[in-house]
């Protein structure tokens, strides 16, 4: 393949300077920061990437008023905490709140899907309303000086290899366009701040957990700042959890998505992982849903009244951007259903790609999580079982009773009946007449 690099040296092969230049290049490669390797994209690579960006600008809410940024000093990366369709709708059309209030959209310049596809929501020159209450190095309203990029995913779930590949090219283009360096690329969790609350008596970091799982190395970037300038200057109180992720003490293990302690990448409450550590300012939002170990659910704005924050038990799962009633119905059912907000990750967490998570697609295909490359590609209406083994096929000699024993009629024993999909054992009308091809799925834990 003919690659046309952006930098060419005007020296012939016979030039006496060639060995010297080669030596200089070797030294540069050995001493360059990790992100520098990303700057090997050829012109054709960049043109191809630009041509593949999906133009979503026509979908922007007509209420949104475009405003050119007078200066661009930063690039801010976010995790959307939603699936692709919901994210595209929110960033382009706007947010809708429980009290009826809406926003006019324009909440990102770009969206990067989990398969690596990039959507252009706003031209990079326009101000996107993405950072909210924010500060960096003494400058407030970071949306005024930054490009905003949303990565589809959750801050406690890994981003995909395809997303990092697209991020590398997109960030290279934006850095070059605005003369920025690697350290000028930050996460939303680094620049957002909050007003005093029950955890902090002063203005503080930690309002957002957004993109705290962003692995700079995989995006071809060098290190972030070694400290938080606003905390160092006394303008803000530090958030201990985020400080551990972004600014570890000298000699500590560098925090990447592979090395961060499990308590920092989980959506489950524990002694080390509070509601605040998981959800940030959204801990008491009406669309943050708490699922207790026994299956009881409660919206974030009802927790203080019904339980009290000090009584939320370990093992409680925290789901962001959900509808409480929908979650409540889903927790009652062994057979889960994927919808706009209830993704495979919402149901199964990190087990979404385990062999023990079984997916029943609307097309009739049945797949286990091991062969699912991405939860965001699963169509709405997909059903799933978490923590199951099978199928064990029913035959004349291998009846449902022989497969499942006394639990063959149990609601936890699931039958996939051709033409009907997954059915709990207590809803199978006739076990003596199960059609050919019926498979039985049994819970692993019992």
CATH hierarchy class name of the domain at 49-263 = Alpha Beta
Largest sheet: 6 strands, mixed
Radius of gyration: 25 Å
Globular, elongated, flat, extended or rod-shaped: what is the shape? globular
Report strand order across the widest sheet.
Answer: 1-4-3-7-2-8
Indicate the low-confidence ranges by residue numbers.
1-38, 253-264
In short:
The protein is α+β, with helices and mostly antiparallel strands and 446 residues long. The chain has helices at residues 17-31, 43-52, 84-93, 161-178, 188-191, 229-232, 240-246, 275-279, 303-306, 324-332, 344-348, 400-404; strands spanning 54-55, 74-79, 110-112, 118-120, 135-136, 139-140, 146-151, 185-187, 193-194, 204-205, 289-291, 297-299, 317-319, 336-337, 357-360, 366-368, 383-386, 388-393, 414-417, 421-424, 439-443. The strands form 6 sheets. It has a 6-stranded mixed β-sheet.
Folded structure, characterized:
This protein is of the alpha+beta class. Among the domains are: 49-263, Lysozyme-like (3-Layer(aba) Sandwich); 266-332, no CATH class. The protein is built from twelve helices and 21 strands. Strands 1-4-3-7-2-8 form a six-stranded mixed beta sheet. A four-stranded antiparallel beta sheet has the order 14-17-15-16. A hairpin with a 3-residue loop joins strand 19 and strand 20 (421-424). The longest helix has 18 residues, at 161-178. The protein is globular, with a radius of gyration of 25 Å. Residues 1-38 and 253-264 have low confidence and may be disordered.
């Amino acid at each position: 393949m003919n690659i046309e690099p952006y930098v060419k040296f005007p020296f012939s092969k016979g030039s006496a300077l060639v060995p010297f230049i080669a030596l200089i290049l070797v030294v540069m490669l050995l001493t360059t920061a990790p992100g520098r390797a990303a700057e090997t994209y050829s012109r054709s690579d960049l043109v191809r990437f630009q041509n593949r960006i999906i133009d979503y600008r026509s979908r922007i809410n007509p209420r949104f008023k475009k405003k050119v940024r007078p200066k661009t000093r930063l690039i801010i990366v976010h995790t959307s905490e939603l699936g692709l369709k919901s994210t595209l709708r929110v960033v382009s059309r706007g947010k809708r709140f429980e009290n009826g209030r809406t926003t006019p959209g324009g909440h990102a310049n770009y969206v990067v899907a989990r398969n690596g596809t990039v959507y252009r929501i706003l031209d990079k020159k326009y101000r996107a309303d993405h950072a909210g209450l924010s500060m960096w190095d003494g400058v407030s309203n970071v949306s005024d000086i930054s490009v905003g990029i949303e990565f589809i995913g959750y801050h406690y779930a890994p981003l995909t290899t395809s997303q990092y590949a697209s991020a590398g090219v997109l960030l290279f283009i934006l850095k070059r366009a605005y003369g920025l360096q690697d350290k000028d690329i930050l996460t939303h969790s680094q620049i957002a701040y909050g007003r005093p609350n029950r955890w902090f008596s002063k203005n503080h970091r930690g309002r957002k957990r957004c993109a705290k799982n962003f692995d700079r190395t995989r995006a071809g970037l060098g290190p972030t700042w070694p400290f938080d300038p606003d905390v160092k200057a006394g303008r803000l109180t530090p958030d201990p959890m985020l400080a551990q992720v972004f600014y570890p003490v000298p000699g500590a293990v560098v925090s990447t998505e592979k090395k961060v302690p499990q308590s920092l990448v989980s959506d489950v409450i524990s002694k080390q992982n509070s509601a605040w550590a998981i959800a940030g300012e959204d801990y008491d939002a009406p669309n943050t849903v708490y699922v207790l170990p026994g299956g009881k659910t409660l919206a974030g704005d009802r927790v203080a009244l019904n339980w009290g924050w000090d009584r939320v038990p370990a093992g409680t799962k925290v789901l962001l951007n959900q509808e409480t009633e929908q979650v409540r119905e889903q927790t009652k059912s062994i057979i889960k259903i994927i919808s706009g907000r209830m993704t495979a990750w919402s149901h199964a967490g990190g087990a979404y790609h385990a062999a023990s998570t079984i997916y029943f697609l609307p097309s009739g295909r049945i797949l286990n999580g091991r062969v699912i490359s991405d939860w965001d590609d699963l169509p709405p209406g997909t059903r799933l079982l978490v923590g199951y083994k099978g199928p064990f096929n029913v035959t004349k000699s291998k009846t449902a009773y022989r497969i499942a024993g006394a639990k063959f009629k149990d609601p936890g024993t699931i039958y996939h009946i051709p033409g009907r999909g997954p059915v709990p054992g207590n809803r199978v009308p006739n076990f003596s007449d199960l059609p050919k091809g019926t498979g039985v799925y049994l819970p692993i834990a019992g």
